[in-house]
C-alpha cells in the first residue's frame, strides 16, 4: 500500500516536472553508459558552448510561443544578422571584404546585427499584431525575405577573415568560464525578470492564455504582441553576432534550421504550443536536453542519422505529455 | 401509462479518487415523457450522463434500454441505439451546410462510393419540414442564429430515430421566443413517444415543459416527482437541501448621484445598437433587458471600449471619455464581467491568484517597475476570501473550479481594480442555485457601498428581483426604462418585442 502511494506521488511529481525529470534522467543514463567520462567539466563546457547561441533563439521563440505565436524566420534572420555583423568586422586588408579598406569600431557590428534583428522582429510583430496575419504565415514570409536579403547583401559569398577583436567576443573567457556562457546567463536572467517580474511579461502569458479576456482586462494586446516579436528579434540579432564571432565567418548556410531546433527545445522544455504556459528555466533545460541528446549520442558513437530519429521521437513524446498535462478535465 | 421504461439506470455508483460522484443513483424515464433532471452544479447530473454515454465507466449498476440491459461503448454507439445527447455547447462544423452537419459521419453514398448530395439535401429538407424548422439544407450552419443551430442539432438527434434524447441546458443561450419554438419541438418529440431527459437550472422551464422531475444532490438521487405535485420552493429546497424561501437577498440602497451617462450612443456597426441614452446612479443596479439579438452585450462592450462607436458620448462622473479603450475605462473606474466566461473571462491555465490580479498589475509596481508579487497575492487572497471562493489553494488553475467559483474569481478581479461602476453581463449564467444567491448577495453589498452596477440579464426573475430600474432594448434601440414598480414580466416583454 505504501509503495503504491510512493509510486503515485512520484508519478505526480514526474508529470509536473517532465522537463527536469527527462533532463536528469538523460544525464544519469549518459553517465552510467560512459562510466562518468562524458560528464567531465571539459565536456560539459563544450556542450554549454555548443548550445549557447541556440539558447538566444530559444529564449526569443519561447516568449513568442507563450503568446500563442510561432516564429519560423529565426534561422534566416540569425543568418542575416550574422552576415551583417561579420561584414563590419572583416579585416580591412582582406580584398573581398564587403567594406574593403574600412575599419569599424567593435561596437558597430554588434549594433548593426542587433538592429537588423530588432527590425525584423518589429516587422513580424506588426504583421501579426496589427496586420492580424497568422504568425505561421507572417514569419514564413519574413523567413524568405531574410534569406533573400542575406544573399543580396553578401552576393552569396562567404563573409570571412574577421578580425581578432570581434572573434574574441565569443572565443574569450573569464577565468574558467567562457564568455558565451556568461552571455547566455545574462540573457536568461533578463528574460526571466521580464516574464516573471514585469507587467508586460505577465501580459504575454495572459494573451497566450486568452487574448479576448486579456483585452477586456485592459491589456493592449496589439502593442504587447508587437513587442514580444521585437524582443525576440533583438535576441536573434545577438545570436547572429555571437555565431559569426564564434565561427569567424558567416555564409548563407549559417544557422540554417535553427528555428526548428529552437522550437523543439522550448517545446521539450514545457512551453505549451497552446499558449500561456512556459518558463525560462524550462526553456533552458529544453535547450540543454536537446544538446545532451546530440552530444551524448555522438559521444557513444551513434550514427548521426539515428540521432535525427531519436530527436524526433523525443520531441513528439514531450509534446504528447504536455498535451495530456493541460488537457481540460472532463 | 406505459409500463416499460425507455431508459432505466439502476443503482449506478461511480467513485473518483477522494469523492463518491454517484451513490447508487437510479433514474427511470418513461417513453413519451419529458423528464427533467435537476440539481446544483456538482450534484452528479453530468457524471450520470457520462456513464450513460460510456464516457465514464460506472463502478456498479445496470443500464437498461427498453427493458434490455445495455452498455454503450461511446456516444456514437449510443446514437446508433437511438440514444442521443444535445450538449450545452454547440457541436457542429460551422463552415459546412445544415445537411452536411446532419449527416456528418453517415453521408449517403451513391453506387460509385461518392457522396449522394441530392439525397442528403432531400432527406434533410423533409426532416426540417416535419419539425417546422425554417432553414434550407444548403445553408451554412454557422450563418444561422445560435438557437437555429441548436434546433438543427435536435433535428439531427431526431434523424437517428432516437428514442431517448438528452438535452443539457439547451436554452442557456436562447431568447424566450426561441425557447417557445424549442418547446414546440420537444412536445412533438413527446408525441412521437420519445423520452426526453431535460437538464436545466431554470425553474420556469421545468414547470412549462416537464412531466416528471428527478432531483439530485451530492451524488445521490433525492427523488422523482410528478411536476404537477411539486412547487418551485419545494424543488429549490430539494436541490439545495435547505429551505430557500428567498431567491433574492434583501439589500437597502438608494440611488445617488449620476456616475455614468450615455448620450445617443450609436455603434460603428450599423446593424447593432442605435441612439441609446441612459444614466446610472451610485448605489443602483440598472438592469438591461431584452431578447438575444437586442444588442445588449454589444452596447456594454462599446461602453467599455471593446467595440467601436460611430457617434454619441460617454460621461463618467461628468467627464466625457473620448476614444475609450478597456484600459482607459478601467482607469475611470469601470469594470466589466463578460457574458462568455470561458471565451473572454478566465485565463484557464493561470492560477486563481494571477486570474484575480491581472487587471490591477499597474497599481502594484515597485520603484523599478517590477511587480510586487507578495502584495498581489495577498490582495487576491483577500478579495477571494471576502467572496468566499471555494478553492483548494490560490495556486489551483482556474479551469479546475466550478462555474460559480470561477465567476467569483472574475468578480474578485474587478473588485481589485476598485471600480465605481461594474458592468455584469449575465452574472449568473451557468451557475447553480446556491452560488447564484451568493452572487446576488455580493451585488447587494456592492451597491450598499455606493457602487453602481449595470446588469445584463436574460432571466426575467433575476432582472425583476435585483434591479432598481430596467432598461429594455429591442433590435438595438432603447424601448423604455422601467422603474421598480413598473418592472413586471409583461411590461418588459412588451418593450422587448416592440419592433417585432
List keywords for this structure.
heterodimer, A: 330 residues, mainly alpha, 14 helices, B: 500 residues, alpha/beta, Rossmann fold, 2 domains, 6-stranded mixed beta sheet, globular
What topology emerges from the helices and strands here?
The complex is a heterodimer of chains A (330) and B (500).
Chain A: H1 2-16, H2 18-33, H3 41-66, H4 74-87, H5 107-129, H6 135-154, H7 164-171, E1 173-174, E2 177-178, H8 179-197, H9 199-209, H10 211-216, H11 221-247, H12 258-268, H13 280-299, H14 304-326
Antiparallel strand pairs in A: 1-2
Chain B: E1 7-16, E2 19-29, E3 34-38, H1 45-52, E4 60-65, E5 68-69, H2 75-80, E6 83-86, H3 98-102, H4 117-130, H5 146-159, E7 164-168, H6 176-191, E8 195-199, H7 203-209, E9 212-217, E10 220-226, H8 232-240, E11 258-267, E12 276-281, E13 285-289, H9 296-303, E14 309-316, E15 319-320, H10 326-331, E16 334-337, H11 341-344, H12 352-357, H13 373-386, H14 403-416, E17 421-425, H15 433-448, E18 452-456, H16 460-466, E19 469-474, E20 477-483, H17 489-496
Parallel strand pairs in B: 3-8, 3-9, 6-7, 7-8, 13-18, 13-19, 16-17, 17-18
Antiparallel strand pairs in B: 1-2, 1-4, 4-5, 9-10, 11-12, 11-14, 14-15, 19-20
Helix pairs in contact in B: 5-6, 13-14
Amino acid at each position: 500500500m505504501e509503495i503504491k502511494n510512493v509510486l503515485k506521488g512520484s508519478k505526480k511529481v514526474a508529470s509536473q516536472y517532465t522537463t527536469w525529470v527527462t533532463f536528469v534522467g538523460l544525464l544519469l543514463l549518459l553517465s552510467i553508459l560512459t562510466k562518468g567520462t562524458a560528464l567531465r567539466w571539459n565536456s560539459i563546457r563544450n556542450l554549454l558552448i555548443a548550445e549557447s547561441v541556440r539558447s538566444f533563439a530559444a529564449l526569443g521563440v519561447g516568449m513568442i510561443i507563450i503568446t500563442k505565436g510561432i516564429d519560423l524566420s529565426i534561422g534566416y534572420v540569425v543568418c542575416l544578422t550574422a552576415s551583417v555583423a561579420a561584414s563590419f568586422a572583416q579585416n580591412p586588408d582582406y580584398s573581398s571584404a564587403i567594406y574593403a579598406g574600412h575599419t569599424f569600431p567593435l561596437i558597430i557590428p554588434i549594433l548593426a546585427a542587433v538592429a537588423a534583428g530588432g527590425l525584423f522582429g518589429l516587422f513580424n510583430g506588426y504583421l501579426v499584431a496589427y496586420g492580424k496575419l497568422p504568425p505561421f504565415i507572417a514569419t514564413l514570409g519574413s523567413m524568405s525575405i531574410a534569406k533573400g536579403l542575406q544573399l543580396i547583401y553578401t552576393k552569396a559569398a562567404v563573409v570571412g577573415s574577421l578580425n581578432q577583436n570581434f572573434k574574441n567576443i565569443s572565443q574569450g573567457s573569464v577565468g574558467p568560464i567562457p564568455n558565451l556562457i556568461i552571455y547566455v546567463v545574462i540573457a536568461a536572467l533578463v528574460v526571466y525578470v521580464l516574464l516573471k517580474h514585469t507587467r508586460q511579461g505577465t501580459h504575454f502569458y495572459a494573451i497566450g492564455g486568452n487574448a479576448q479576456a486579456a483585452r477586456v482586462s485592459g491589456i493592449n494586446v496589439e502593442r504587447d504582441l508587437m513587442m514580444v516579436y521585437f524582443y525576440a528579434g533583438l535576441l536573434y540579432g545577438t545570436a547572429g553576432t555571437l555565431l559569426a564571432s564564434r565561427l569567424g565567418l558567416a555564409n548563407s548556410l549559417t544557422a540554417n534550421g535553427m528555428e526548428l531546433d529552437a522550437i523543439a527545445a522550448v517545446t521539450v522544455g514545457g512551453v505549451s504550443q497552446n499558449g500561456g504556459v512556459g518558463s525560462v528555466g524550462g526553456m533552458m533545460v529544453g535547450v540543454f536536453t536537446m544538446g545532451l541528446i546530440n552530444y551524448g549520442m555522438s559521444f557513444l558513437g551513434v550514427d548521426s542519422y539515428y540521432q535525427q530519429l531519436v530527436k524526433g521521437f523525443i520531441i513528439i513524446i514531450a509534446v504528447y505529455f504536455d498535451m495530456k498535462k493541460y488537457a481540460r478535465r472532463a | 401509462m406505459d409500463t416499460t421504461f425507455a431508459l432505466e439506470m439502476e443503482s449506478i455508483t461511480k467513485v473518483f479518487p477522494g469523492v463518491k460522484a454517484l451513490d447508487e443513483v437510479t433514474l427511470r424515464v418513461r417513453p413519451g415523457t419529458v423528464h427533467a433532471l435537476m440539481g446544483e452544479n456538482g450534484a452528479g447530473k453530468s457524471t450520470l450522463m457520462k456513464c450513460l454515454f460510456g464516457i465514464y465507466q460506472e463502478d456498479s449498476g445496470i443500464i437498461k434500454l427498453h427493458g434490455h440491459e445495455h452498455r454503450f461503448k461511446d456516444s456514437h454507439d449510443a446514437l446508433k441505439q437511438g440514444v442521443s445527447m444535445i450538449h450545452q455547447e454547440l457541436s457542429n462544423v460551422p463552415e459546412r451546410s445544415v445537411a452536411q452537419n446532419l449527416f456528418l459521419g453517415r453521408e449517403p453514398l451513391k453506387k460509385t462510393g461518392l457522396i449522394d448530395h441530392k439525397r442528403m439535401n432531400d432527406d434533410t429538407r423533409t426532416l426540417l419540414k416535419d419539425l417546422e424548422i425554417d432553414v434550407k439544407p444548403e445553408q451554412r450552419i454557422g450563418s444561422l442564429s445560435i438557437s437555429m443551430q441548436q434546433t438543427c442539432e435536435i433535428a439531427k438527434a431526431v434523424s437517428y430515430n432516437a428514442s431517448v434524447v438528452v438535452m443539457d441546458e439547451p436554452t442557456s443561450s436562447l431568447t424566450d421566443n426561441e425557447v417557445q419554438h424549442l418547446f414546440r419541438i420537444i412536445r412533438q418529440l413527446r408525441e412521437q413517444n420519445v423520452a426526453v431527459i431535460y437538464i436545466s437550472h431554470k425553474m420556469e422551464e421545468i414547470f412549462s415543459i416537464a412531466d416528471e422531475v428527478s432531483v439530485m444532490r451530492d451524488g445521490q438521487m433525492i427523488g422523482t416527482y410528478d411536476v404537477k405535485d411539486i412547487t418551485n420552493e419545494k424543488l429549490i429546497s430539494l436541490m439545495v437541501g435547505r429551505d430557500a424561501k428567498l431567491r433574492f437577498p434583501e439589500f437597502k440602497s438608494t440611488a445617488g448621484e449620476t456616475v455614468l451617462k450615455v448620450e445617443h450612443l450609436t455603434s460603428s456597426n450599423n446593424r447593432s445598437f442605435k441612439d441609446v441614452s441612459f444614466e446610472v446612479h451610485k448605489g443602483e443596479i440598472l438592469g438591461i433587458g431584452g431578447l438575444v439579438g437586442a444588442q445588449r452585450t454589444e452596447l456594454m462592450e462599446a461602453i467599455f471600449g471593446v467595440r467601436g462607436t460611430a457617434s454619441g458620448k460617454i460621461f463618467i462622473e461628468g467627464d466625457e471619455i473620448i476614444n475609450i479603450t478597456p484600459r482607459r475605462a478601467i482607469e475611470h473606474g469601470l469594470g466589466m464581467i463578460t457574458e462568455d466566461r470561458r471565451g473572454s473571462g478566465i485565463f484557464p491555465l493561470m492560477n486563481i491568484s494571477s486570474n484575480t490580479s491581472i487587471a490591477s498589475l499597474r497599481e502594484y509596481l515597485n520603484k523599478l517597475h517590477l511587480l510586487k508579487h507578495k502584495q498581489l497575492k495577498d490582495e487576491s487572497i483577500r478579495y477571494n476570501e471576502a467572496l468566499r471562493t471555494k478553492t483548494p489553494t490560490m495556486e489551483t488553475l482556474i479551469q479546475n473550479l466550478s462555474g460559480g467559483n470561477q465567476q467569483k474569481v472574475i468578480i474578485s478581479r474587478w473588485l481589485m481594480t476598485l471600480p465605481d461602476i461594474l458592468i455584469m453581463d449575465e452574472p449568473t449564467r451557468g451557475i447553480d442555485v446556491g452560488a447564484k444567491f451568493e452572487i446576488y448577495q455580493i451585488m447587494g453589498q456592492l451597491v450598499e457601498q455606493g457602487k453602481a452596477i449595470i446588469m445584463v440579464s436574460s432571466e426575467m426573475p433575476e432582472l425583476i428581483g435585483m434591479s432598481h430600474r430596467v432598461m429594455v432594448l429591442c433590435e438595438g434601440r432603447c424601448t423604455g426604462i422601467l422603474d421598480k414598480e413598473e418592472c413586471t414580466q409583461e411590461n418588459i416583454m412588451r418593450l422587448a418585442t416592440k419592433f417585432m
